[in-house]
Amino acid sequence: EVQLVESGGGLVQPGGSLELSCAASGFTFSIYGMSWVRQAPGKGLESVSGVNGGNGRATYADSVKGRFTIYRDNPNSTLYLQMNNLQPDDTGVYYCTKSSKPTSDAPYAYRGQGTQVTVSS
Predict the structure, then answer these.
(1) Which of 41, 36, 48 is nearest to 111 (CA)?
(2) Are 21 and 8 in contact (CB under 8 A)?
(3) Cα–chain center distance at 23
(4) If you average pLDDT over residues 100-119, what whole number do you get?
């Protein structure tokens, strides 16, 4: 059974940092593309960042480029998202997703329960 468990969310002031983690199990983590998506209050899901299995190529939404870094620890089946210089527009529920393919841009097959990130002074 595929499981994705996010952690690391919280309340942070503008300009602050958080690191999200996603503990994965139930599949061969290193093979599949993994991503972070988020949902702001009253809005739809937005792709934030993804990283391929295999080559580890990462992609980012324009809104987070230069501020967020995605990386994966394949031996420990964990996905991370380091978020720096957080802004109020980054507020939302962040979900870890597993792609159906080695590339992160394929439609995701599974999604975790999410972790809340709130950026506010």
Answers:
(1) 36
(2) yes
(3) 11
(4) 92
